[in-house]
Amino acid sequence: MNRFREHFMRFMIGRYGADKLGQFLIWTAFILMVVRMLIRNPWINTASSVCLVWCCFRMFSKNIGKRFEENQRFERICFRFTEKFRRWRFKLSQIREYHIYKCPGCGQKIRIPRGKGRISIHCPKCNTDFIKKS
């Protein structure tokens, strides 16, 4: 077993290897294979095969710069989606604990804890005072 491992390690020298895009392709292929068991459609099988072939091509490629750029583009796209989800989750947590009011003078958003009754709110930006229920 160690001999096979050494040969494989020597083979992989100078090749790109696995990254986040490769992991995504493997998981996509796996999910498509599971769906293929439930839905008898030959196109699903073809799509999973394409994902696996593309993943293997990327892993064994010697053009490291190009594969790195592909992975960076993929990570930028993933960041956009995950950042939207994080912002949405943060807003939900803030809504549970705080009221968010806009200052009538300048429009600045002000976060006030819930459950304090009617309070006077002081805007830190324009120094306007206004009364709201928290």
Task: Explain how this protein is built.
The chain is of the alpha+beta class and 134 residues long. The protein has helices at 2-12, 20-38, 42-60, 64-97; strands spanning 98-102, 109-113, 118-122, 129-133. Strands 1-2 form a two-stranded antiparallel ribbon. Strands 3-4 form a two-stranded antiparallel ribbon. Strand 1 (98-102) and strand 2 (109-113) form a beta hairpin. The protein is elongated and about 75 Å long. The mean pLDDT is 90.
Short overview:
The protein has 134 residues and is α+β, with helices and mostly antiparallel strands. The chain has 4 helices and 4 strands.
Spans of at least 5 consecutive residues with low confidence: none
Helix content: 55-70%
Strand order in the largest sheet: 1-2
Give the domain tally. 1
SSE string, helix = H, strand = E? HHHHEEEE
Q: What share of residues are in beta strands?
A: 5-15%
Quote the distance from N terminus to C terminus: 67 Å
Supply the number of helical segments: 4
> For the report, how would you describe the main beta sheet?
2 strands, antiparallel
Q: Tally the beta strands.
A: 4
The average pLDDT score comes to 90
